[in-house]
Design goal:
Helix content: 10-25%
Number of strands: 19
Largest sheet: 6 strands, antiparallel
Number of helices: 9
CATH architecture of the largest domain: 3-Layer(aba) Sandwich
Distance between the termini: 34 Å
CATH topology of the largest domain: Rossmann fold
Order of helices and strands: EEHEEHEEEEEEEEHEEHEHEHEHHEHE
Length: 342
């Protein structure tokens, strides 16, 4: 039988309960406390804190989210620490922007459908007994058989009363998480914890939306597109949807976008292939090059400053997008949204 311990935040005085099989970060978010985070799996370091009182078990001592200086100072990661008793913590960042709109919860859902999108990308649909509540662009943590620790995957659909959570996932060579997922059969149970993520659709912002995706980064970008169409307050807001793939057989997403009202009018699909040889061999007649370069080529610089950007994809793509938008083009940081998983 699990126990629950009290976690108190030094700066704000906020106090919440944390089960002995939950983490300091996730239990706080479940309680509605605004603890800072991004990846939730030990990579980004955004959830750093100092343990003032109490004792915790560190799930991943070598997590890359901590640098040598952090370790020397005794800092820890909220997403990797499970309490062994009551604790007093001092997070590095305290901000109300981290208070979740939909508090994350853990549940066991049934895998009810699997659909191939490309040779190595599949859509998985998990059904829960409760309504699915999350913002367009958010992600969940999946606990998979034989895999140590959770894996973060974004939803491609939007909130719904049917309890459906759709995930678009690429099978990574030698990847334990995606390998376990691709081995699952319809009817099996999947452990889900979510929603999480801060790169969600800002419906209050009426600037042109630019989505930049690559690989399974298609999922949250589709969710954002679907969220825009479903929200009447965003009627008339334009969407430029950039998607990068290596070759013709890696390209997907157009069929899903075509199903949305406004496709070809307010919604524009702008794909590009990065491998020129594969593109030519496959008879591709569209744009060739890295997807961030297509964004710069397709949108005039003065218009880029008046767009809202959402991006998800391989780390090398994200880095290139961030260097171009934030570094070269000086787009304001609060107009660029992404979740760092690596």
């Amino acid at each position: 039988m699990s126990k629950a311990f009290s976690i108190r935040v030094q700066q704000s005085g906020a106090e919440y309960s944390c089960a002995d099989d939950d983490t300091v970060l996730r239990s706080g978010l479940r309680a509605g406390v605004g603890l800072s985070y991004e990846c939730n799996v030990g990579s980004c370091g955004t959830c750093k804190f100092e343990l003032i009182e109490g004792e915790v078990h560190n799930l991943w001592e070598e997590a890359p989210g901590l640098n040598p200086r952090d370790r020397q100072r005794g800092r820890m990661l909220g997403c990797q620490c499970v309490p062994l008793g009551d604790c007093l913590i001092k997070p590095m960042i305290i901000d109300d922007s981290f208070v979740p709109t939909d508090r994350p919860r853990r549940f066991s859902g049934e895998l009810i459908a699997v659909r191939d999108l490309t040779h190595d990308i599949r859509e998985f649909t998990v059904k829960d007994s409760q309504a699915a509540g999350f913002r367009p662009g958010q992600y969940a943590l999946l606990y998979l058989p034989g895999v140590a620790g959770p894996r973060a995957y974004s939803m491609s659909n939007i909130r719904n009363a049917q309890g459906l959570w759709d995930f678009i996932i690429r099978k990574v060579p030698n990847g334990a998480g995606s390998g376990a997922l691709f081995d699952l059969q319809v009817g099996e149970q999947v452990q889900v914890d979510g929603p999480y993520g801060l790169a969600y659709l800002r419906t209050e912002v009426k600037r042109t939306v630019v989505c930049i995706g690559g690989g399974s980064g298609l999922a949250p970008m589709l969710s954002i597109a679907r969220g825009m169409v479903a929200d009447s307050t965003m009627d008339g807001v334009k969407l430029k949807f950039f998607y990068g793939a290596r070759g013709p057989r890696d390209l997907c997403g157009e069929a899903e976008l075509k199903a949305l009202a406004g496709f070809g009018d307010r919604i524009e699909f702008l794909p590009a292939l990065s491998d020129a040889a594969e593109a030519t061999a496959g008879g591709w007649t569209g744009d060739v090059g890295f997807i961030h370069e297509q964004v710069k080529a397709r949108i005039p610089t003065d218009q880029l400053q008046e767009c809202e950007f959402y991006t998800c994809g391989p780390p090398v793509m994200i880095n290139a997008v961030m260097q171009m938008l934030g570094g070269e083009l000086k787009v304001l940081p609060d107009r660029i949204h992404y979740d760092s998983f690596v």
